[in-house]
Queue: 4 jobs
Job 1
Amino acid sequence: DAGVIQSPRHEVTEMGQEVTLRCKPISGHNSLFWYRQTMMRGLELLIYFNNNVPIDDSGMPEDRFSAKMPNASFSTLKIQPSEPRDSAVYFCASSLTPWSGGNTIYFGEGSWLTVV
Amino acid sequence: GENVEQHPSTLSVQEGDSAVIKCTYSDSASNYFPWYKQELGKRPQLIIDIRSNVGEKKDQRIAVTLNKTAKHFSLHITETQPEDSAVYFCAASEGNTPLVFGKGTRLSVIA
């Protein structure tokens, strides 16, 4: 299996521009997560989906952030308009549920976003 | 919701010594406790996990212990090697909600 696939791996954009991050989960996994990692805040869960349905988006920092999962094999995280404080590594991850079974969460390589 | 505290934030050890990282959690219903290792510029990867029906688990040089009464769990690395240098994250879940991660421990193994 190719694992969780994210694109782009690196993006540098100007403040105010729209940023779209993409993710393909591991085939057969029914949960998908978007995390943001910064030095100050560590790994933060932004939103997660079960069976393509958003379950909890309480971690999404502002209305500038939105996420979609139109089908089982694709998800996007969009930031519009982007700001310098959005600079971070954004990880997509996937797993099987239920987590009580100890189903491992697998991370993608991450999208390194720099907003200047 | 769950809250996971991790200590220390940084840890330096001499090669060959042991390293211990500790985490506490707040939700007594949590029953799954994985540990992830993140090397510089890489993704977090699972290295070991423990479930609430087990007090200790070992895998070669790494071990995890769990104290459900005190709501804390620890990662132990023995005979540390330079390749153990990384950021380590603990996490907890009660099964119906996603993992909540600690803030990470940056381990440096000095040769």
Job 2
Amino acid sequence: GENVEQHPSTLSVQEGDSAVIKCTYSDSASNYFPWYKQELGKRPQLIIDIRSNVGEKKDQRIAVTLNKTAKHFSLHITETQPEDSAVYFCAASPNNDMRFGAGTRLTVKP
Amino acid sequence: GAVVSQHPSRVICKSGTSVKIECRSLDFQATTMFWYRQFPKKSLMLMATSNEGSKATYEQGVEKDKFLINHASLTLSTLTVTSAHPEDSSFYICSASRTSGGPSGELFFGEGSRLTVL
């Protein structure tokens, strides 16, 4: 089955700096790669996703890149703000089965 | 957007009792629902995939007799933790996808249910 690894597990940045979170996956059949943000005690919320026919996608301060050959994808957050502080999960999905990375706890210091 | 509602949000029970958690898709039909377990500061661990009208598919290491899953309709899946013990205490989250088979799609998550077994 699919195995997703995520790094780093914790990330602390100064407000205004950029944050990058990286994930690798094992199943070449995976074709959908979402990123979720989870605040403490709340449900995960989709923030951006990318499909395997696209190499990069951007939505305001958030961007995701995908390298199918290397089987890795990354989340980039620019101009970070304190409200970006949360746990971020990457996921990879072959067909209708989604597997999550271990999560990255992002802290943005004012 | 699609809404998934999960109930109850919190439940405390005595050891040995059974607890049922409901997951409903409010404004769409969900052929497939997923049940996850999340330990403190940990990731979402897939427990089982629930398919409407058929038996759930359990992940390796998840006891199907312990965690009973029923997906009786296109908008409701239930997870019953049978004979709960303190080690079953956890945060359980369901999710639903609009699509069944074919290209993958966004998952919509319930609010989660925090189970505490005394």
Job 3
Amino acid sequence: ETGVTQSPTHLIKTRGQQVTLRCSSQSGHNTVSWYQQALGQGPQFIFQYYREEENGRGNFPPRFSGLQFPNYSSELNVNALELDDSALYLCASSSGTDYEQYFGPGTRLTVT
Amino acid sequence: AQSVTQLDSQVPVFEEAPVELRCNYSSSVSVYLFWYVQYPNQGLQLLLKYLSGSTLVKGINGFEAEFNKSQTSFHLRKPSVHISDTAEYFCAADTGGFKTIFGAGTRLFVKA
């Protein structure tokens, strides 16, 4: 059973640019959630996708957007990057039956 | 609004000593509670979860937690810690749908 994977591992972007982060969910999981973890803080919920539809959103601006594909993998897109977007971005997949989320290793985004 | 407060940002402890990491939650509805561990440069791993039933929950690596509804607490305990338990620990709450709210984290540092 393959776990949750994320790519890339690290990324450096310039303020104003756009970035796409990718997540492959664990086999059999139809729900993917994205979190932003700033340095020294707990993860903050960005949004969740369930069967290709957005199923809830945290307090993040519209320049944070996402997609979920038929194979339940997912993308997080961030437009007009700001310095404060520098963080570890985590995705987590779940089956929707046991309230257990499985986290990927994260993508470390640095905005300069 | 739902919130999670971890009362200690850092907890230093000697190897083989007991430890308690404190967590309080605020929710007006039924809540599911979790503890996660994060090792450096890694994603989050679930230690244990409380969904319902027995208020004493046992998890992996010898950790356990007790749900106390009257005190709205979910403290994590281990009777004897090891050097390898050094990590960041996050308490989290979910009122349903996997839109999880995390605390700011407690850094457990186990000293030889």
Job 4
Amino acid sequence: DARVTQTPRHKVTEMGQEVTMRCQPILGHNTVFWYRQTMMQGLELLAYFRNRAPLDDSGMPKDRFSAEMPDATLATLKIQPSEPRDSAVYFCASGPSRDRGRSGNQPQHFGDGTRLSIL
Amino acid sequence: GQQVMQIPQYQHVQEGEDFTTYCNSSTTLSNIQWYKQRPGGHPVFLIQLVKSGEVKKQKRLTFQFGEAKKNSSLHITATQTTDVGTYFCAGTKWIYNQGGKLIFGQGTELSVKP
């Protein structure tokens, strides 16, 4: 059963440290999303890639966050320097190509998430 | 802003009772998706509605998309303890130069008392 793989599953580190989260999208999916989930804000879209190109990162704090797709099988989300308010669950999701000619979208397949705690 | 509002935030029911969560947008949506997230888990896609007035059923779950494509609902008949979790709606809004953007509601957390 194809699935999105995220590593690490858990991360605890001190503020100021660099944090790197990795995601392997489902083979053949060319859209990748990074979400952050907290009790207060719910699910927030941080960044969105299609065919490895960043299309929307308006939800991401640019000063400390960066998202990249070095290749089609790997997406990364980095926080440098990390702060306690970054503590959250970070989800990666992937989906098949969107057809611009139709009103429909494609379902997103979520990974298990990275539970990040910044002390 | 680009928001999709979902109510209620929490719902506690007795097993066997029905449950409904509502999703509203101030602007027209291209489609609406519904996801379920079990406690400690990740969101899992349930269904997608595209057409105005569309109704789809999955066993005890009934999904509706409003005629104006601005609202949607999920109704669960005779809840079971396995229905526990948070239900999210997510609407697609087309944004110039970005294509379709999926915007999640805040979710409705359902608890079921045996």
